Amino acid sequence: MRTHYDPTENDEFEVAKNLLVRRCAEWADRQQLTADPFVLAAALDFRHTGIDGRLAFWTKELAGKFLLIWMPRTISARAEEVSSAPNSLRTLIRYLHHTELIEAGSDHLTDIEAAITDAATEFPQAMSDNGNFGLAKFWAMTAIDSGVDPTDHAAMDRFVERVHEDTVEYDSAALQRVTARHIDGDHVSPGQAPMVPPVSLPPEDELAETTENSPLVWRLRELVEWLGRDGRALTDTGRLKLADARELVTRLNTGDTIDPVIGDRTYRTQSSAELTELGLIVAWAKKTRVVRVVKNRLVPIAKARPLLRDSRGLWNKAFDAIVELGDEILEPPRYGPAMPDMFFREIVPDILRSLFGMPEAFPVVRLQENVWLSCGFDDLDESRRGLVRRLTDNEVWRILRALDLLGAVELTTGIAEPTFLADLAEDPAVDDGIGALQAAERGNLSTTPDSGAGPVDLVRLTPPATARVRIWLLDEGRYAPLVGELTEATPAQLLGTIAERHPPEAAREEIDRWLSVHDSDGPERLIDAVRRCSFRSRGAAMLEVLATNSNEGTTLLRRLRSDHVLGPLAVQNLVNNGALDQNDLTEQEQALSLAEQLIQALETSGPEAVLEMLLASPPPSGAMEVLSVALNSGHPATIGLEELHIIVEPLERATEK
Questions:
Q1: How far apart are CA 199 and CA 543, in angstroms?
Q2: pTM, full prediction
Q3: What does the pLDDT look like over 70-120, one tens digit per residue?
Q4: Which domain of life is it from (predicted)?
Q5: CA 377 to CA 471: how far, in whole Å?
Q6: Which of 252, 282, 255 is nearest to 266 (CA)?
Q7: Facing residues of 54 across strands?
């Protein structure tokens, strides 16, 4: 069982939700705690539809948002009908801690419970304020108040007709509040953003050294020094005077650039407006707030002096400001820009997010394809499509060169990794949902070093840019893991997180870092975490992570084969990796392995899938015997074994037919 499911994994999420609700409610009953299954399910829906989608990650803010915003806007129920919501949420959080499912980075249990207590006092009012409803809930509750059952489609159709006829009484002021919030896009469930892989970053001093060497950081400092205390006078149109601009081109070395298109050439120049790269640097300095215009003079900002001495801080400010530089980076209007500024403000962050966490350099042609698709030019006629596509590709290059000037990307050429071809059809004529990559471009992308085909342009983020984009993602509420941040996690959090989200190359480093800061008994603590896990499918994934990234490997699994709790998991792993054959198992191990398989299937796929699995056992009449072997195996997962009894009755009915 996992604690994160993509939006496309609806069936898998529903199975996991039902499992968590069922087990949490049963645990709560034993603990004499409040646990309304409806509220438990709603809380899991709330997290699943959140931007990070992590079911077991909870903070004080998330608890308050669920009770005071999400439920009031989403759940069509009166306050008294869900009065147990605060205590039910409290029970869920306690259960996640009890089962060690709670994710690393979550707030402390006592802090979350205090936040729930505070929110509980406001909850009845929040649930009753119809101006706090979502648009769908507003009309559902209005229908209920009018005596209409929202689940009766025919009755609701008649209700909608009455609304249009203006014969339904409703709170128009509240509706205005609800509608205004809806139009503003203040939606309580933003939907999941794509998961990003964990990244590794160098130490802070190395990041600072890298930003110190940024071409833009050097130029910004040179610009401020050139301005002096009094600054420089500008023309009536607010531009640098031509003589000053020519002097500055030499000082900032913008006339000798890797880009002959945007590089500045001062001969035959009639206006500083023609010096596009210099104009970009000056505009960047303004947006970074190290210079400003005062009484038609470009002057340094005195308060920015500490920032100018801090290369990392200056670089970060410049990085964040790039989204405001569309007019300076994009093609001048007389050349017909393909990308309006409104797109630029969205495209630049999208480009940076696309490159984030990429283990290999990204083909520029694929990046251009992504931008082309996101700009929405599908309705262009064929006579203009080719021209606009070329202009759009050029705009992407201008963005990349500006990022290169900052030191945010590295531009190289080479052979593209095969992984960047995984979603392309072999035949370029096939509509594969990616777009119309040219046949030659596809050919280049599919080359190998010995094929003789030419290299392609590649791009990748630099470490400072990776660090900054990660901050962006975290500020958006997304999960952007950093290798090494789990060193203070519990053993269960470490293995569970790695099992769900870490690629192999990051998993070993994460475990090694964790072991380096813990006692010599660290490996045994990790094994104990697997032993305590009450969800066998999760325990299996945790043990596989541990075995794969342990120096002992198969030796560890063979040692655990005789372990009362972990034996079935160890045997399962040994069989799966070919280190053990089914014929090598004892009769007891075969029975335990069968029970293990059914318990895990019940957790991950649900009762119906287990039923189908059993009925597929030849002959069908032997299905009950198979289940009986599992139920009487003495498997250590008593909760999972007990849950298998829910299969007995439907299996009996199915085998009697």
A1: 23
A2: 0.87
A3: 999 999 999 999 999 999 999 999 999 999 999 999 999 999 999 999 999
A4: Bacteria
A5: 31
A6: 255
A7: 4
Q: What integer pLDDT is reported at residue 385 of this predicted model?
A: 77
The answer to whether residues 543 and 572 touch, using CB atoms and an 8 Å cutoff, is no
Given a contact cutoff of 8 angstroms between Cβ atoms, the answer to whether 462 and 410 are in contact is: yes
What are residue 456's DSSP bridge partners?
Answer: 414
Coil, helix or strand at residue 292: strand
Stretch 335-359: mean pLDDT? 81
Residue with the two structure tokens 């696309």: 354
DSSP 3-state assignment of 293? Answer: strand
Please tell me the distance from the alpha carbon of residue 153 to that of residue 305, in angstroms, as a whole number. Answer: 67
Does the N-terminal peptide bond of residue 619 adopt cis geometry, omega within 30 degrees of 0? Answer: yes
From the number of C-beta atoms within 10 Å of its C-beta (0-12, 13-18, 19+), residue 272 rates as buried
Could you give the C-alpha distances from 385 to 375, 392, 475, 595, 609, in angstroms and in order?
A: 12, 10, 37, 60, 49
416, 363 contact by CB (below 8 A): yes
Q: Nearest to residue 14, comparing CAs of 51, 48, 57, 63?
A: 48
Strands 362-363 and 297-300: unpaired
Question: Which of 404, 401, 402, 375 lies closest to 388 in space, CA to CA?
Answer: 375
Our CA angle for 479, 480, 481, nearest 5°, is 110
- CB contact set of 451 (below 8 Å; sequence gap of 6+): none
Q: Which two tokens stand for residue 181?
A: 């919030």
Query: Are the beta carbons of 18 and 1 closer than 8 angstroms?
Result: no
Q: Are strands 297-300 and 291-294 parallel, antiparallel or unpaired?
A: antiparallel
Contacts of 73 (CB under 8 A, 6+ apart): 132, 133, 134, 137, 188
The residues facing 414 across adjacent strands are: 456
Q: Helix %, strand %, coil % for the chain, to 5?
A: 60, 5, 35
Which one-letter DSSP state was computed for residue 301?
Answer: -
Angle, helices 311-321 vs 276-287, to 10°: value is 110
Residue with tokens 């590709």: 393
Asked if 233 and 224 touch (Cβ cutoff 8 Å), the reply is no
The first and second tokens of residue 461, run together, are: 């983020």
Query: Do residues 535 and 600 touch, judged by C-beta distance below 8 A?
Result: no
Sorted by where each begins, the domain ranges of the chain are: 10-134, 204-325, 341-476, 491-656
Band of pLDDT at residue 388, cut at 50, 70 and 90? confident
| Rounded CA Rg of the chain | 31
| Beta-sheet strand order (sheet of 232-233) | 232-233, 297-300, 291-294
Nearest to 400 by CA among 323, 459, 344, 332: 459
Compute the average pLDDT of residues 183-204: 86
**234, 245 in Cβ contact below 8 A?**
no
